[in-house]
Give the backbone structure.
Amino acid sequence: MQNPKLQVLANTVNKLLHRDAYGPLRKILSKRHPAELAYFFRDFTPVDRKRLFENCGDDQVKAAVLGEIDLPVAVELISNQDPADAVHILNNMDSDDLADLLEELDEDLKEKLLKLFKDEDQEAVEELMAYDASTAGGIMNPSFLALPQTATAGEAVDFLQNSSEDYAITFYIYVINSAEKLSGVVSLRQLVTCKPSTTLRELMTPEVISVPVSMDQEEVAEIVQRYGFLAVPVVDDTNRMVGVVTVDDVIEVIREEATEDIFKMSGAGQDIEYFQDSFSERFRPRFTSIFFPLLTGVTSSLILAFRRPFFTDASGRNIFFLLMIPILLVLSSAIANQSGSLMVRGIALGRVKWAHFIEVFRRETAMSLMLGLLFGLFAFGFAMIPIFTRNGSASLQVVFPMFVGLTVFFSMLFAGVVGACLPLVFKRMNLDPASAAGSILSGLVEVFTILLYVFLISWA
């Protein structure tokens, strides 16, 4: 839900833009945080976004706004800038945000911009771009504070006071040995509460929790969340520190991963920018996600078609068997979605692993048995309503509710257990668990329910 105050601000800015009142506009924008500016940037047209960006502040403010807004909008704004002007803005961005932005730009423009950077800046950005965007190396910030073991607390404080560099985080001072390998960490609180002559070797905590550059960003987020860190150091294969992943990056990762899981479970494909992506980019994932359920739906229809003589005999007495199919599918799909969602979220948070498979199977079997029994009894009673069986024979009026109840019981048992176990199997196979809890699970449950129902009523 949008903040009402920011909505009022967006309306005011919109009016000033349309009146070309740039003086009052700049005065209003100068008092707002870049995150607030980014909050309503997406609501304007590309032309208005360009004019707004030109008047939102100096190069430093513009860089901060680019770091806050959605990546497609940032790409659009930079693409509309003269390369020389764009470089002045980009020089003020954090290296990790800059690498992500450059990665999305047109190749020709990216090459032009890289050539305009200073040699050391270009090298740092290209090094970040070499890492996979979804790994610790891809989301880390290479600007961190590291001092040798022999430095004293007083020297460290003096260094901090006189340093002009904007480090990603200063709550932690990382300690390196003579080979520039990570050997410890000192908190800012430790630094300012000890004697100035105390060396960092004496102060530091030697057991440093770090992550390799190749670690998946989701695992990095889990580590930061587990230990409550504000930042976690990133090291290469030789334990040489190359960057830090800060808590703001972790929050963004958690948001991205949760959004991605929701999209995949709903069958909408990857995380997309709804208003920025083209129709074709939005159409393809949704089409392919619907295609598998379509195949399973076709299979279910063919199963019923082969049993058509049973449903459409001359007396028409068996037609009421078709009336229960919607409730069968609804109940089995509901429990499948429940168990699938629980497992995907548990896997994402690191609370459920492959080692828990037997326990998950046991717990979900017990839960599905109980739910299946309760709803099976409900379906049994519901199917006894005379409106369903009034044209059937006396024997069918007796066995029909039993078939419905049994189908609900076994289909819910199957859906609950498979819905919980399939994401774990997918994770074990290095596949996305969210995909298992989406259209694949729905299709399997639907076909199983129809097959089971047709099998049972064939005994009528």
Summary: Residues 4-130 form a domain with the MgtE N-terminal fold fold (CATH 1.25.60.10). The mean pLDDT is 80. Strands lie at 146-148, 172-176, 182-187, 211-212, 231-235, 241-246.
